[in-house]
Amino acid sequence: MKKTVTVIPARYQSSRFPGKPLAMIAGKAMIQRVYEQLGQAAGIDKIIVATDDERIYNAVGQFNGIAVMTGECSCGTERVYEAVKDCTCDIVINVQGDEPLIKPEMVEELITAFADDSVVMATLCKEITSDADINNPNIVKVVRDKNEDALYFSRYPVPYNRDGRKDVKYFRHIGIYGYKKDFLKEYVQMKRTPLELAENLEQLRVLENGCKIRVIETQYDSIGVDTPEDIFKIEKEMEKASDFLSE
């Protein structure tokens, strides 16, 4: 059996929402909400919060979670590797700390990608049905080959539907990732690449270095928190969802 560790990178500083991981959502800190959701997923052996801030570290300890302090990191992926580099595991799952409604099933789907031993990195996508979302540069699109490996990620609406065909599908990239641990080490040592810099999409570094990313289609969705106003949206969704209980 492959040992799987899930890491939640959590920074305190944020230009739009400082202290976001500690924002309260229906009586619990957001980082606790994410942690508890992941705890419901089958196939995870350990959950770690990776942070550079003692306030977050202490908050995780208060709900008996596991946290590690990391040093200065240039990106979330680097912080994830810092958290697991001395950990014995085969697969590392990277889940953002601002996804308090993440479905455990999404993580389980991601883990299944590694049943194929050739897969070194995997992520999720969901079909887009709204024209507004297709044309929204804040929603990253992904196109895949017949093996479900990524051909490209873009903020632009790809593929370009030149003839207005009705059978063209668009897929939104959902930014949770899985890696083989050995590949994660290789990934964080790669230099930034031209397409990555142009689109400001870190995953393009992998494709530009000739490596593959398996992209699993999911039926589930999640709502991220970018601003304080998003907290109200999350709490409304929790009130509607039967699997959440306000405490």
What count of helical segments does DSSP give? 9
Query: CATH fold name of the largest domain, please?
Result: Spore Coat Polysaccharide Biosynthesis Protein SpsA, Chain A
Tally of individual domains:
2
**Name of the top-level CATH class of the largest domain:** Alpha Beta
Number of strands: 11
Give the CATH superfamily of the largest domain: Spore Coat Polysaccharide Biosynthesis Protein SpsA, Chain A
Structural class: alpha/beta
Flag low-confidence runs.
Answer: none
Instruction: Tell me the strand order in the biggest sheet.
Output: 5-4-1-6-10-7-11
Series of secondary-structure elements, N-terminal to C-terminal: EEEHEHEHEHEHEEEHHHEH
Notes on the structure:
This protein is of the alpha/beta class and 247 residues long. The chain has 9 helices and 11 strands. Helix 3 packs across helix 6 (181-188). It has 2 domains: 1-102 and 222-247, Spore Coat Polysaccharide Biosynthesis Protein SpsA, Chain A (Alpha-Beta Complex), CATH 3.90.550; 105-175 and 192-219, Spore Coat Polysaccharide Biosynthesis Protein SpsA, Chain A. A 7-stranded mixed β-sheet has the order 5-4-1-6-10-7-11, with helices on both faces. Strands 2-3 form a two-stranded antiparallel sheet. It has helices at residues 30-38, 54-62, 76-84, 104-112, 131-134, 181-188, 194-199, 204-208, 230-240; strands at 4-10, 24-25, 28-29, 46-51, 67-69, 91-94, 121-128, 141-144, 150-154, 170-180, 214-217.
